[in-house]
Amino acid sequence: MTNLLGIVITILAGIYFYITCCSSCGIGVAEEPAKLVMVQPEEPEITSYPFSVGDGTFSYETEDNFNFNTSSSEFLKPLSPQVQEGIVSELKGYLTENANKVVNITGYYKEGETNNTAFPNLGLARANAVKNHFVAHEIPSSQINIIGEAKNEMVPDNEVLMGPVAFQLQEVAANAEEELKALYDKIKADPLILYFDTAEASINLSAAQRQKVAEIARYLDKVPDAQAEIIGYTDSEGKASTNLRLGQERADFAKAYLVQNGISADRIGTDSKGKQDPIASNATEEGRAKNRRTVISIK
Q1: Which terminus of the chain has a lower count of CB atoms within 10 Å, N or C?
Q2: What is the mean pLDDT of residues 62-69?
């Protein structure tokens, strides 16, 4: 009996020391399951670029700027009074007093935005929209350069890009006249040609054609008395009077497209030559398709 009692006491003592000593070092004790912590991704910070322009002792800046919806080339209105003041009073006055200066307008865009304009990229189209606003307030287009540049770090605010345009003042390039002459020769030698199907009612430009639109627009900006000329042609099918009318309609359609994309209507002339001056044989459908065209150049 004594031996049995001793065995029971020994077992109880072992259990006691196991619980009080071994559990403190974690041996044999089930650990609490680790909790899964969900880490929320940080929201990217919205970007906003101010209207800022300066040159030597001249400087103007405001936190507001031209704003654009994503995939749009039209800036949102109304502009803030501070931006309007910077254009109408400050920048206009500076350029009037400094005829040897030009302002570079750089429009920014993000890769992935949809470009439905006639310009090579949305940045250039946005810069052109801002340029037209400057011109409407009597800043000569000859003192404005437009540039397009990708800026993928921009983060919109509810689909609105805040200030995706920048401004820089510089002197007129020493070889500006030579560059304009070279641009004129390039446009005349290789004009923009649009081909039309019989019932086509839209214009979809290739990258090369968009570049030609930008070059024509640049030349018109820099040469005040220059004018774009659009001539419509048809194939030989149908009456001569009908073809003259159809060629004019195509030329007018192309003009409306350019005007929609920011080229002033009074800088564009249109005409029709109908079935005259074919560039291919009208005996084949392939040749007739080439003859149904609109040629856009400069005078």
Answers
A1: N
A2: 98
Q: Which tokens in the block code for residue 186?
A: 């390039």
DSSP the chain: -HHHHHHHHHHHHHHHHHHHHGGGGTTT-PPPPPPPPPPPPPPPPPPB--EEEEETTEEEEES---EEETT--SBPSSPPHHHHHIIIIIIHHHHHH-TTEEEEEEEEE-TT----SSSSSHHHHHHHHHHHHHHHTT--GGGEEEEEEE-TT---BTTEEE--EEEEEEEPPTTHHHHHHHHHHHHHHS-EEEE--TT-------HHHHHHHHHHHHHHHH-TT--EEEEEE--S-S-HHHHHHHHHHHHHHHHHHHHHTT--GGGEEEEEEET-S-SS-TTSHHHHHHHSEEEEEE-
Instruction: Map tokens 């000569």 to a residue.
Output: 140
- Strands lying side by side in the sheet with 144-150: 144-150, 101-109, 165-171
Phi, psi of 9 (to 5 degrees): -65, -40
In a 13 Å sphere around the CA of 240, the CA atoms on its Cβ side amount to 3
- pLDDT of 205 strictly over 80: yes
What pLDDT was estimated at residue 41? 72
pLDDT for residue 197 is more than 90: no
pTM above 0.85, yes or no: no
Tokens for 149, please give them.
């540049």
Q: Contact at 8 Å (CB) between 230 and 269?
A: yes
| Token duo for residue 232 | 């419509």
